[in-house]
Write a structure and sequence with these properties.
By secondary structure, this protein is α/β, with parallel strands linked by helices. The chain has a seven-stranded mixed sheet. The chain has a two-stranded antiparallel sheet with strand order 1-2. Bound molecules: S-adenosylmethionine (SAM). The site of S-adenosylmethionine has 22 residues, from helix 2 and helix 5.
Length: 237
């Protein structure tokens, strides 16, 4: 059996087949709903690994984490989260596209990387801020395509994340490299201005709460991962 290697370990033929199925579904949905999907391919293992940084390296090495993943898509980043989770951790997977949500639900019983966290994970087929504020998280991992949203939408989502994040908790999200330059050349003026306003909001949050940013070149397209921490001190980390 031929094997390729990923951050999660050897990629068996069965896993490769599953990733191809994910990619087909993702690409099909991207063609239908590019605005909400935001990309034509699922994230790479390298991007998933970086997005799970604060699940792997936790402030309290013995504490269990309550985790939210927003925009799970076909589960590319969920797999990185699953690989970093420890017994006692819990995960809410939120996905607005019902086809993706159903797919992720299925992965929890069929996919070898995801089924190990099936008892600790819940899939919610809704918009992330419709989850409500009667819950709190230690770690939020967001795959939402902020660059496609308006500045007000992004501000509402970031406000929501920081409402449900515990003091001292972390938010990780990514954005693609070079998209602003490409948009400056090909986008209509109003779309370019919309994206510029959105990126000011994102940059403002990074300036206020950022604790580190990493470039991930092994992704199509290459991405910046930004890690933010909510001020305050909570030992659960
Ligand atoms: C760029 S894709 C990322 C998918 C996956 N995490 C990955 O990295 O391959 C963004 C995902 O967010 C979902 N999405 C967009 N807006 C959302 C919202 N407000 N709440 C929940 N999910 C949303 C889309 O349906 C899509 O699956």
């Amino acid at each position: 059996m031929s094997e390729t290697h990923s951050h999660a370990g050897p990629l068996s033929a069965l896993r490769l087949q599953e990733r191809l199925r994910d990619t087909r579904l993702f690409f099909g949905q991207a063609l239908r709903t590019f605005h909400a999907t935001g990309s034509i391919l699922p994230s790479s293992g390298a991007l998933a690994h970086e997005m799970a940084e604060h699940i792997r390296h936790r402030t309290d090495p013995d504490g269990a984490l309550s985790i939210l993943e927003a925009g799970a898509g076909t589960g590319a980043i969920s797999r990185g989260i699953a690989a970093a989770m420890r017994p006692g951790d819990t995960l809410d997977l939120v996905e607005a596209n019902p086809e993706f949500a159903a797919h992720v639900e299925e992965l929890l019983s069929t996919d070898p990387d995801m089924s190990r966290i099936a008892d600790s994970a819940t899939v919610h087929a809704c918009l992330v801020n419709d989850l409500g504020t009667d819950r709190t998280y230690d770690v939020i991992v967001s795959g939402l395509p902020f660059a496609n949203f308006t500045a007000d939408q992004v501000k509402d989502i970031l406000d929501y994340y920081f409402t449900v994040l515990r003091p001292g908790g972390t938010l990780s999200f990514y954005g693609y490299l070079y998209t602003k330059g490409v948009k400056a050349v090909i986008a209509k003026r109003e779309d370019y201005l919309r994206q510029a306003r959105t990126s000011w909001v994102v940059q403002d949050w990074i300036d206020r709460y950022g604790i580190g940013s990493e470039k991930v070149f092994a992704n199509v397209p290459p991405a910046w991962v930004h890690h933010l921490r909510k001020p305050g001190n909570d030992l659960r980390g």
